[in-house]
Automatic annotation (TrEMBL):
Keywords, comma-separated and alphabetical: Disulfide bond, Membrane, Transmembrane, Transmembrane helix
InterPro entries in the record: CUB_dom, Sperma_CUB_dom_sf, Sushi/SCR/CCP_sf, Sushi_SCR_CCP_dom
Transmembrane regions: 234-254
One Pfam family matching this protein: CUB
The keyword Membrane appears for this protein: yes
Domain CUB: 50-170
UniProt KW Ubl conjugation keyword: no
The organism of origin for this protein: Trichoplusia ni
Protein name per the record: Uncharacterized protein LOC113501389
Gene field: LOC113501389
């Protein structure tokens, strides 16, 4: 069913899809509802030129994007298109195939004429196919570099959509430990930092700090300075500010109560 919807509606602003006509097996379905999620992306931000290396930022809006074959979604051209996706050495690359529409194996052919392949820098193949795969298909690399190849030996412009994929850098890059502090432990999900003895983080006044990695590549917090617990002007000023604020508030409250009593 997904393939039938993708064939008529992927890559266009408007489409008509008559369930019983465009997907005949639906005639045997029981009464019910079909929900379709239609996501859009800004084509001006996609990579649509062949033979490019994309250095993907560690975090932020630019840490993900789209790649499409030239001519998508109206046609694709018989040619070889390569893209290399590179992220920080501490990270991995996730490639999500959103649409694959290439020439299938013909009745008198034994192999694919046109195909898409995704491979790791170590040579491992993550995918190689010319058929419509179950979409969306998510592939995550082992190394920090992924090569995407769309090889089309068909002559001229072939009347199928081509390939559309999404990429994103995966994993939080280790934040540097502050002066008078150190990294205790980290894995894919958390990082534990500590300040040296008699030092605390300047914002929490605690020695320990635990960070969580979320949204694939973002830490939930930062690692601020570690400052001395004793004879520190910052904390002295903070204590004085708190004391005077408390004193003034109590004084105003006392005067207000005295007025009400009169």
């Amino acid at each position: 069913f997904k393939s039938a919807v993708a064939a008529g509606c992927t890559g266009v602003n408007h489409c008509n899809f008559v369930l019983y006509e465009d997907y005949p097996p639906a005639k045997s379905w029981s009464p019910g509802a079909v929900f379709i999620k239609y996501a859009c992306f800004d084509d001006t931000l996609s990579v649509h030129y062949c033979n490019r290396e994309v250095v993907v930022p560690e975090v932020g809006a630019d840490s993900e994007g789209y790649i499409r074959t030239p001519g998508y979604p109206h046609f694709y051209v018989g040619d070889e298109c390569r893209w290399r996706l590179r992220v920080n050495p501490e990270q991995r690359v996730r490639v999500t195939l959103l649409d694959v529409s290439l020439r299938s194996i013909g009745p008198f052919e034994n192999h694919c004429t046109d195909h898409v392949s995704v491979s790791d820098l170590n040579g491992d193949s993550l995918l190689s196919s010319c058929e419509q795969v179950e979409l969306p298909l998510k592939l995550t690399s082992v190394t920090n570099v992924v090569d995407v190849l769309v090889e089309a030996k068909s002559k001229g412009a072939y009347p199928k959509r081509g390939v559309l994929l999404h990429y994103k850098s995966i994993g939080c890059v280790t934040l540097p430990a502050p002066s008078n502090g150190y990294l205790v432990y980290r894995n894919e999900d958390v990082a534990h930092y500590m300040c040296d003895v008699n030092f605390v983080f300047i914002d929490t006044r605690q020695r320990a700090r635990l960070l969580w990695c979320y949204d694939d590549n973002r830490w939930n917090d930062t690692v601020p300075l570690c400052v001395g617990k004793l004879n520190n002007s910052y904390f002295v000023l903070l204590e004085l500010y708190s004391f005077f604020a408390f004193t003034i508030a109590n004084s105003l409250l006392f005067k207000q109560n005295k007025v009400f009593r009169r």
